[in-house]
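Same chain as my last thread, 293 residues:
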Amino acid sequence: MWSDVTQRAAAATPDAPDASGSPQRKASSVNGFLQIERLSKAYVPGKPVFADVSFVLDKGEFVCIIGHSGCGKTTILNVLAGLDTATSGNVIMDGREISGPSLDRGVVFQSHALMPWLTVRQNIAFAVKSRWPDWKSTQVTAHVEKFVALVGLSPAIDKKPSQLSGGMKQRVGIARAFSIQPKMLLLDEPFGALDALTRGTIQDELMAIVRQTQQTVFMITHDVDEAILLADRILLMSNGNETPDGYRPGGIAEVVVNPLPRDRTRASLHHLDGYYALRNHIVDFLVTRAKAH
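reply #2:
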């Protein structure tokens, strides 16, 4: 099937049959651009929210993580961003351990996080100047205008956030993140607060930009269809749980490799062979298996 339950560590081993006797599809060999090694986070001693979380991302890969609230998805993203620290474990990106925030990693949160007193142009220029402080104003202007155009906001480039819709604000946040040309883009449910039509439009725009830039992306979502549309792989995360044998921390329960064509679109997604089987597999996990056992 699509599930790589060994989380790519066994990618070099032969395919093994699943419970139904069908061979499981292993992920391809990895180049280790991003390596997460035995990550854990505990707020209460002896009861980590998650433990032994290990996975890798290839350069240019789009990976979504999905799970119920409280499983630790955002904590993992914050550790990758350098905004939080793990109780144990390591995160290595491009051969260097992550130990704090860096312009090598762009972050887009559910809230747009724009500076309200600055225009669209000025919000993005602030990030660009932070990345390239020696650039001339003409270079900054050209670079800003390029990324504003990429998200279709050129007519609103001199407007302030108060003059923009929710979807437009998120487009500015995405343009700002891409404008610093990070090695990795981190998305924390960036479309969660948007209406369905706006969310769908921005998903299409994000897919187009990622394909154009070959950006490496790690994204949190609660939306199964969004994960199937956007991701090359989907990490299914379980919650920590009290069991008769004691407390079991949450973690990565399963890694699903998306078998659908990479040029898939939102409009054609539900017509693709394998879509409903893949969607049902993920929904079944969330409904029946998302607690640690």
